[in-house]
Write a structure and sequence with these properties.
The protein is α/β, with parallel strands linked by helices and 371 residues long. It contains twelve helices and 17 strands.
């Protein structure tokens, strides 16, 4: 079996490396950063992603490091009143620090024999048999390559060329603050924006807020923002006011629509996660889809079934991206449309509380680890 080279040591890349190693493959991971230290942020692992982590043998560690989410709550951000509550306590839905998840994955991958190499920058890739990576230090690396190198992937253009992104007219803010919170993900909706908050281990709360505005911010999670501007922008969100006063550091970034890659694989190269299908964050599926990709591409690579893999995975990713984009519109409604929509959700919540969760059974109920 040809050696495998995974480019990118994020959630998707490490999961893929571990899945390949579990299948007896020789794997090395190349990470451009000098250390594995993800920007401090929370992450939601929904049941479809959790099943992959469980199949990799990591469920006990994930459960120990996470909070079990009991509900997803949609609320009127102007009044603080709940619009609808969706019970998710019957499914494995976890809330944890992104850094903790990366640490669990990197430790498991190393123990499985994966070689993780930091400060290793890929300049380009040639899709041959084997593929050849050209490194910044002038060396070459050959093998079967998995591009898990995110939004600004170096691997993706080799299969798809350049694909410009489009600004959505939305800007996201992110912060972590101290304080107690119930074990649920709450989304407070206001005209032209929303705020998501959920608890993290250690007595912390993760805040992610989105506003609609014409001027854009650069992509990426590492751009510092102004806490006072954050407070001023979302002060009208009643349930977030107390949290906002505790914000000391905040990051801000623009949300851009990237097309789903046309080709997810070549002769000896495959793409997973954001390198293949960047998604907006309104369904919390970026990491979960990457986990699904990681498991399924490992199987496809070891069985030489990449065309069938892409045929199965691409429509699912596209459906999830459409659903996330639709959520953004629904969260940001104003005027009469907003009042009618909220009234309809309240009615559904009272008369058929299981209906809304069932709308996403295609997403959360899916299990890529089943034969």
């Amino acid at each position: 079996m040809m050696p495998f080279v995974v480019v990118g040591a994020g959630i998707g890349g490490l999961s893929c490396a571990l899945a390949l190693a579990r299948r007896g493959a020789q794997v090395r991971v190349l990470e451009r950063a000098a250390e594995l230290s993800p920007v401090g942020a929370g992450i939601q692992i929904s049941p479809n992603g959790y099943r992959v982590l469980s199949a990799l043998g990591l469920a006990p560690e994930i459960d120990a490091a996470a909070i079990a989410n009991r509900a997803v709550v949609l609320a009127d951000g102007l009044t603080g009143r709940e619009v609808v509550r969706m019970d998710v306590s019957g499914a494995p839905y976890r809330l944890l620090h992104r850094a903790d998840l990366v640490a669990i994955l990197s430790r498991a991958a190393s123990e499985a024999g994966v070689r993780i190499e930091l400060d290793r920058r890929v300049v380009s890739v040639e899709d041959g048999a084997p593929a050849r990576l050209v490194m910044e230090d002038g060396t070459d690396i050959e093998g079967t390559v998995v591009g898990a190198d995110g939004l600004h992937s170096v691997i993706r253009p080799a299969l798809n060329g350049d694909a410009p992104a489009t600004f959505t007219g939305q800007v996201a803010w992110r912060a972590i603050v101290p304080g107690p919170a119930p074990p649920e993900a709450r989304i407070d909706m206001v005209p032209g924006g929303h705020v998501v908050q959920y608890p993290l281990p250690g007595g912390l709360v993760n805040l992610v807020a989105v506003e609609e505005r014409s001027d854009w911010a650069p992509e990426g999670w590492t751009h510092p923002g102004d806490p006072d501007a954050f407070r001023a922008t979302f002060h009208r969100v009643r349930a977030a006011r107390t949290r906002l006063t505790d914000v000391e550091r905040v990051h801000v970034w623009g949300l851009f629509l990237h097309p789903v890659a046309h080709s997810w694989h070549g002769r000896s190269v495959a793409l997973i996660g954001d390198a293949a299908h960047p998604t907006l964050p309104f369904l919390a599926q970026g990491a979960n889809l990457a986990l699904e990709d990681a498991w399924t591409v490992a199987e496809a690579l070891t069985k030489d079934t990449l065309p069938a893999w892409q045929a199965a995975r691409r429509p699912r990713a596209q459906r999830a991206i459409r659903a996330a984009t639709g959520n953004a519109r629904s969260y940001h409604l104003g005027g009469l449309t907003r009042r009618v929509a909220h009234a309809g959700l309240r009615a559904v919540g009272r008369t058929a509380p299981g209906l809304l969760p069932r709308r996403f059974e295609w997403l959360y109920g899916h299990d890529v680890t089943r034969p």
